[in-house]
Design brief:
Length: 433
Amino acid sequence: MLLGNSIRFRWDPLSFLSACQGIDGPIVAIEDGLYLVSGPELIETILHNRDDIFLKTGSSEAGDMVSFPSSLMNSSGEDWSLKRRAMQPDFTLRRVASGLSSTRVITEAHLEQWQTGPRSGDIRKLLQELCLDVGCQFLLGTVLDEEGKEAFLVLSDAIILKTREPVRLPLHCFDRTSYRLTSAREAAKAVARAAIARAGQEHGKAGSNNWIGSFVNRTSVEDAEWLCDEFCAMVLSGIEPMSAGLTWTLHLLTSHPDVLQRVIAEVDALSSSEWAAGEGLAGLHPFPEARASLLEALRLFPPAWLTGRTVARDTMLGDFFLAAGSAVMISPWINHRSARFFDEPDRFRPDRWMDGTLQQRLPRYAFFPFGGGIRRCIGEHFSLTHMAFILVCILKRFILKPPSKTQVKAYPALVLRPLGVKLALMPRATAAY
Ligand code: HEM
C-alpha cells in the first residue's frame, strides 16, 4: 500500500493529491517517514510552528538541495528571523503599490512588442519575461540587459526541470540536471553581483528608488554573498509563480467567455482619460472582477502547490505520532478543490469571491495560495497588486482567443507551471493607449 502511494505520488502527484480528497482523514502516509497533511487545523499547527518543531525543509541540507541556501526562503532560526524583520518593511501594501506606475511603463512596453510579434504564441513565456522585468524594476530600480535576462530565464527552467524529478539527487552529484542547474546558477549570480553593485551606486543619486539600494543603506548589510543569493531568490520567486498565476488566469478566462466578458466590462468602465491619468493604479480594489478571477485561478491552480517541513523531534500531530526526522508535506491543491469547502470545487467560478466574505467564512487553511504562519509569502501584496494590474493592462489592449484545439497541462515542479497555453492576441479596436 505504502509503496503504491510513494510511486503514485512521485510519478503523478496531482492525481494522487486529487485522490486524497476522497480519503477520510487529515493525514496520509506516502512512504515511511513522509506524510501528506490536509486537515486545516493540522496545517495551522505545522505552519504556525509555535513549538519550533516543524522546520522548513531544505534548511538543514540547504547546501546540497537548494540553489540559494542563505536566502530568506531557505534560512531558518535566528538567521531567518533577522532577515525577515529587515526585509518586511519593503513589502507592505503601500510600499509595493508605489511601484505600480513603473510596472505600468514596463507592461506597456512589453504589450507593444506583443502587438508587433507573432499573433499567437505561448503566453506563459511572454508573461515570464514581463514578470522578470517587473520584479527587477522593484528590486533594482531598473531592468536587466538581454544577457542578464537570459541568464535568469535559463536558471528558472533549470530549477523547474530539477524539481520535477521523481527522485531528486543532491546538486553535488553532478547528474545532468544538477550540472545544468549549478552552471545556470553561477551565471545568474555573476549577473546579480554586477547589477547589485550598480544599484548600490545609483541609490545615492536623487530620485533613485530600489529595494537593494534602500535595504543596504537601512540595514548596513555587509554580507555580499547573502545579498546576491537574496536577489536571485527574489527574482525567481517573482518570475515563476507570478507568470504561472497570470497564465492560468488567462487560460481560465478565455475558456469561460461569459466570465471574460464581465471582466472586460469592468476594465472598460474606466474611461481612456481616467486610465491615462493613472486611475486604477491604487491596487486591486477598482477591479473586483479581475481580482476575483485571479483568486479563483490561484484556488484551482495554486502556483506553490506543495511545501514541506521536517519534524525536529518526536511529536504528536492530532492523533498521529511523527518521529523526529520525518517529513510532512502540505498541498493547497487538496483543500482548494475539496467539496467540503467550495461549491462545485472543480468549476472556475470567480463569482464566489465577489462579495468579499468567502475568505472570512472559510476555515483558515481551506484557501492558502501564499502559505501561512511565520513563513507566509513576503511577496503576497506585491504579487496580488501587480498581477491584477498586469491582467487589466492586457485586457485593455488585446482580445485573447484560444486556438480551437489546445492541450493544456499542469507541470508540477517547484511551481505548478502551465504548459501549452497558446493564445491568439488581437489588438482591440478601442485600445485606449
Ligand atoms: C503568485 C505569486 C506567489 C505565490 C503563489 C507565492 C507563494 C508562496 C508560498 C506558498 C510561500 C510559503 C512557502 C512555505 O511555507 O514553505 C512563499 C514564500 C516566500 N515567497 Fe512567495 N509567492 C509568490 C510570489 C512571490 C514574490 C513576487 C516574491 C518576492 C518578490 C516572493 C517571495 C517569497 C519569499 C522570500 C518567501 C519566503 C518567506 C519566508 O520564508 O519568510 N513570493 N511564497
